[in-house]
Amino acid sequence: MKCKVCRDRAVIQVRRHNANFCAPHFVDHIHRQVEKTIHHYRMFRPSDRLVLGVSGGKDSLALWDILTELGYRVDGVYLHLGIGEYSSDSLRFTQEFAESRGLDLKIVDLPTDVGFSIPQAAAATARTACSACGLSKRYILNQVAAEGGYDVLVMGHNLDDEAATLFGNVLQWNPEYLARQAPVLPADDGGLIRKVKPLIRVAERETAAYAVIRGIEYEVEECPMAAGNTINRYKEWLNALEEQSPGLKANFLFGFLDRGQPAFASHRGSVELAACAECGQPTTGEVCAFCRLRRQTLVKISSRAAS
Amino acid sequence: MKVILRQPRREIEVEGVSKVADLFKQLDLVPESYLVIRDGELLTIDMPVGPDDVIELRPVISGGSP
Ligand code: SF4
Ligand SMILES: [Zn+2]
Ligand SMILES: [Zn+2]
């Protein structure tokens, strides 16, 4: 296979674009895709203060590299989940990346700073590990962004993440979720920071390839809590379909955003957000879901320590 | 040839494979879900591979709930 631009040997085939690329032209291609996405959805301007949620995986580290190469100044925030070797390895990859490029990284350590780990939260509450983890990430990242005076919280969700999430929401016909899934979630007065997903046009295979080409070391091993994770199963299925019909995942997602989602607009809801009685962050109830999770988990941990 | 699989990391011996595409067929894996890496370089599906190669099949799927 030859590069579509220079006819050198290609290192990656992007079937849905009917194109093969050599390493430098693939890097150019990805930079252009992301820049186009940022402009198309008016995600942010160069003068905005940006903070990126980094996990040590391929997507967030690739995105940090891409945005930096495009000339944006982006700080990072890493949430240590307390999941054994997986967390310590991910943190090491993140720190090494930030140091090698002189980028600012803020680390929040869930066990030390808040008092519990994700496995402890899963054991103490009715939530699965991934649900407790998702909630904690959304909460802590928003908190760090708000307290740090950032304008925009940038996330590394890729095309496959969004397509798999959409697939799950369609299987459930969950109109509230369908109404809300978007490349840009605007800020609101209650204290939610604007959230954007610049990798939404880049497939998971491409962010991984980008990381390899750019020599970015990332956590390849899977989180031990992910075993049997439904989102990952949806991704496998969608990839099996993509293999037969290149472009299927992108059509599914962008067809929905352009033509399907407007039908759910009335479900976007005008939920009133008020300040959480315990932490002050925006919530629909009296005490926010994170504060409830924290309280339940800490009670369980201390009662176990006492017995 | 030696093939390195991940999640978790392990090694297997594979024989009778002359192209990357054969590898996917023999192991019954979906190419869209993997990168093929030899000596730090990505290989496309049409590339020839030989018995002395060490090839990593790196899964690209990761992450749980967003
Ligand atoms: S697999 Fe689940 S627990 Fe592990 S990092 Fe992802 S969301 Fe968190
Ligand atoms: Zn080229
Ligand atoms: Zn709260």
Describe the structure.
The complex is a heterodimer of chains A (307) and B (66). Helix content of chain A is 50%, strand content 11%. Chain A is α/β, with parallel strands linked by helices and 307 residues long. Chain A has one domain: Rossmann fold. In chain A, the strands form 3 sheets. A 6-stranded mixed sheet of chain A has the order 5-4-3-6-8-7, sandwiched between helices. In chain A, strands 1-2 form a two-stranded antiparallel ribbon. In chain A, strand 3 (50-54), helix 2 and strand 4 form a beta-alpha-beta unit. The N and C termini of chain A lie far apart (65 Å). The model of chain A has no long low-confidence stretch (mean pLDDT 95). With 66 residues, chain B is mainly beta. Chain B has a single domain, classed as Ubiquitin-like (UB roll) (Roll), CATH 3.10.20. Helices cover 12% and strands 32% of the residues of chain B. Chain B has one helix at 20-27, and strands spanning 2-5, 10-13, 34-38, 41-42, 54-59. A 5-stranded mixed sheet of chain B has the order 2-1-5-3-4, with no helix packed on it. The mean pLDDT of chain B is 93. Chains A and B meet through helix 6, helix 7, helix 9 and helix 10 of A and strand 3 and strand 4 of B. The structure holds iron/sulfur cluster (SF4) and zinc ion (ZN) (2 copies). Residues 3, 5-6, 8, 22, 25 of chain A line the site of one zinc ion.
